[in-house]
Amino acid sequence: MTAIPRFDHDQRGELIFHAKGEHQPIFVLENDKYRWLHFGSPGIQSAMDLKKPNRAVLPYMIAMLGISHFVQATSGCLLGVGGGGLLRTLSEEHPEIQVDAIEYDEAVLRVCEQYFNISSQAATYRLQHAEALDYVTHTDKQYDVMWLDLYGIDDLPPFMGDEAFYEACRSRLTSDGALAINLICQGSHRKYIELIRRVCNSQTIVVPIEGYLNTIVYAFNTKDYQQTIQKLLANGVVRKVKLEVELGMMAWY
């Protein structure tokens, strides 16, 4: 498998924008290759290749986009826009997917439009200012795929430790829909993974991101989970798979 160029998380750059934000400080930095967003912590929220802005450069984003190997999607929902990396790549690689993009900090949306090639007039996605839990609880829309990319200054939002949140997300999926969930925390991901597996009847694939704090979880609504696993084993995209007793099927890109 061809090696994928990756954004080095110890990049050095010039500060080109700083604002307080509604919920956290917002910083935008760049060098001659990349522009990136962070919220005042060591973690990078999003990064953009200045020469190829639609290329996914953060390893966790590559894994999040990997859900497309398992789901034939025309509708999607992204919870947590950040710097718009997933939206840019989806627009180029999967223009057939119409995405509702939900972001709770309006200042982040403004930064996306000003610095990260995100447009409120895009044909393939619609930006919405809303809180993720409130949105999934009250919307009546159904989606083929949902990407959960939620993070604050230094931890996951508290509701991501609540079973009701994942139940609400799963209720928004079509019959063969799936979730791609980015878990990033300083401690163990295990409690979140076990919670997701409980809600989704253990129909998951866990994707650790080596060298990073991220772990991605795919969770499926399908009645034919075994066929999903066969796709995983046959598609040649992942380099290693393992069946773990407590965490179920695992895969590495």
Provide structural commentary:
The protein is an alpha/beta fold and 253 residues long. Helix content is 25%, strand content 30%. It has one domain (54-252): Vaccinia Virus protein VP39 (Rossmann fold, 3-Layer(aba) Sandwich). It contains seven helices and 13 strands. The strands form two sheets. A nine-stranded mixed β-sheet has the order 7-6-5-8-9-11-10-13-12, sandwiched between helices. A four-stranded antiparallel β-sheet has the order 1-2-3-4, covered by helices on one side.
List keywords for this structure.
four-stranded antiparallel beta sheet; 7 helices; nine-stranded mixed beta sheet; Rossmann fold; 253 residues; disordered N terminus; single chain; alpha/beta
Q: Which sheet architecture does the biggest sheet show?
A: 9 strands, mixed
Q: In percent terms, what proportion of residues is strand?
A: 25-35%
Alpha-carbon distance between the two ends: 10 Å
- Which consecutive residue ranges, at least 5 long each, have pLDDT under 50? 1-5
Shape: globular
Number of helices: 7
Radius of gyration: 17 Å
Lateral strand order in the biggest sheet: 7-6-5-8-9-11-10-13-12
Encode the helix/strand succession as letters.
EEEEHEHEHEHEHEHEEHEE
CATH topology term: Rossmann fold
User: Which CATH architecture would you pick?
Assistant: 3-Layer(aba) Sandwich
Kindly state the percentage of residues in helix: 10-25%
Mean pLDDT: 91
CATH superfamily: Vaccinia Virus protein VP39
Please provide the count of β strands: 13
**Class by helix and strand content?**
alpha/beta
Structurally, the number of domains stands at: 1
At the first level of CATH, the class is: Alpha Beta
